[in-house]
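Posted in: Structural Biology > Protein-Ligand Complexes

Title: Requesting predicted complex, riboflavin in pocket

I'd be grateful if someone could produce the 3D structure tokens for the following input. Sequence and ligand are given below.
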Amino acid sequence: MATENKNLSNYDKNALPNAKDFRFGFVVSEWNDDVTEGLYKGAYDALIDCGAINENIVRWNVPGSFELIFGAKKMHEEVHVDVVIVIGSLIKGETLHFEYICEGVVQGIKEMNLMYQIPTIFCVLTDNNKQQSLDRSGGIYGNKGVEAAISAIKMIALG
Ligand code: RBF
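-- Reply #1 --
Done. Output follows.
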């Protein structure tokens, strides 16, 4: 994976708009929660570092990555946020479920980006094993949650 050669979690907050007035909605999958909690922490801390305030950050949990689709749709329709960020961790097992769920989640989130005026940011790790996921959720290859947070701020600023 490309991330092995680079830690992408560094950012220049002075080059970003201040996030103090932005409202963020997270939908977080509980499956592989050691990974998804690391991703959430990376994203949350980056948002606060960029000026966001805790009261403007909503978090919902869902059981697994497949439920991110329904959770994000519901958040778009019921909560006044400027961006929705979905967080999940899919780890390849012995079955074809991995491919099916990955495909379903990617397509579901893609459709939401076409359906709604508010962007949906994709922070779902799809790895071969748990170690690869831990390495990218606050480990040696940085934290994809940080990158999702920065993407969210940039997409809100797009208008
Ligand atoms: N959800 C995840 O978020 N990550 C996984 O790695 C994952 N693996 C699964 C493997 C199998 C065989 C099944 C049946 C489900 C898995 N799920 C996983 C749960 C899935 O996202 C969803 O919560 C359930 O299928 C219930 O709709």
